[in-house]
Amino acid sequence: MKLRTPRLAARALILQDNALLLVNAFPDGRSDLWCAPGGGVESGASLHDNLMREVHEETGLRIAVGAPALVNEFHDPASGFHQVEIFFHCTITAGELTPDWRDPAKVVTERRFFTQADLQSRRIRFKPDSLASVAWIHGLTYDPLERLTR
């Protein structure tokens, strides 16, 4: 295994009508795993600017970025991939989810709101594991290294 520099990502916790927006970021539905919208940080832009760009690309929504909620990291021991994610509470400022929106990168295939009960019951697969609790609370949480799930 080759050690690699950790990748930095920003993710949005967007609640609407007490439900959390999640995306399936596996082209062609190769996995049933859901996550918060967001993605890799581009150098030279703030975490907020990167997050606003990623959320718009993946959902068509415009957001305001609020306080950080979670620092999460995961890795794949086989490949050496290691990602550190910073989750922020966000609010929608413009747009709505429409069935005709397409992610220009063709990575996100589905976008949907889930209730806290959906996540707590594990009716769906999602990462990180702490998502069901941190999205509905305020304060900063650290979720130590998890193993990558596909």
Question: Helix amount, in percent?
Answer: 10-25%
The number of distinct structural domains comes to: 1
Structural class: mainly beta
Please outline the major beta sheet.
7 strands, mixed
Query: What is the highest CATH level, the class?
Result: Alpha Beta
Please give a handful of descriptors for the protein shown:
7-stranded mixed β-sheet, two-stranded parallel ribbon, mainly beta, Nucleoside Triphosphate Pyrophosphohydrolase, single chain, 3 helices, 150 residues, globular
Question: Nutshell version of this structure?
Answer:
With 150 residues, this protein is mainly beta.
Characterization of this structure:
This protein has 150 residues and is mainly beta. The chain has a single domain (7-147), classed as Alpha-Beta Complex (Nucleoside Triphosphate Pyrophosphohydrolase). 15% of the residues lie in helices and 43% in strands. The chain has helices spanning 47-59, 116-120, 131-134; strands spanning 7-16, 19-24, 33-34, 38-40, 62-76, 81-94, 110-115, 125-126, 141-147. The strands form two sheets. Strands 1, 2, 4, 5, 6, 7 and 9 form a seven-stranded mixed β-sheet that branches. A two-stranded parallel sheet has the order 3-8. A hairpin with a 4-residue loop joins strand 5 and strand 6.
